[in-house]
Amino acid sequence: MMPLRLDSGKALVYVQAAYRKSGEIGSLDPATGAYTALLKHPESAAGTENTLFLPKVACRDGRSFLLPQRISEDEDEAEKAATGVLVFGE
């Protein structure tokens, strides 16, 4: 879980993707510890989302933006094919 910012007194967080489970944006109430999922990323993107190296995450207007901190491959063609950004929204 990665904190993004405070929103209406609650912590907006990114829950990282796991092996076969996509990530999501959620809200964490600091007073009660209650977690609420706000934007679940599609399961079909879990594999791609999981390959991003330490993604920088931003969330705005019901959309989440994920960018890897670096793209590095052994071959130029593989580097060109690497995911540069993922955007999810409702």
Low-confidence segments, ≥5 residues, pLDDT <50?
none
Main sheet attributes: strand count, strand direction, barrel closure: 4 strands, antiparallel
Q: SS-based structural class?
A: mainly beta
The helix content is: 10-25%
Global shape: elongated
Strand order of the largest sheet: 1-2-3-4
What does this protein look like?
The structure is a single chain. The chain is mainly beta and 90 residues long. The chain is built from two helices and seven strands. The strands form two sheets. A four-stranded antiparallel β-sheet has the order 1-2-3-4, with no helix packed on it. The model has no long low-confidence stretch (mean pLDDT 86).
Task: Please tag this protein with its features.
single chain, 90 residues, mainly beta, four-stranded antiparallel sheet, three-stranded antiparallel sheet, 2 helices, 7 strands, 13% helix, 41% strand, elongated
Can you summarize this structure?
The protein has 90 residues and is mainly beta.
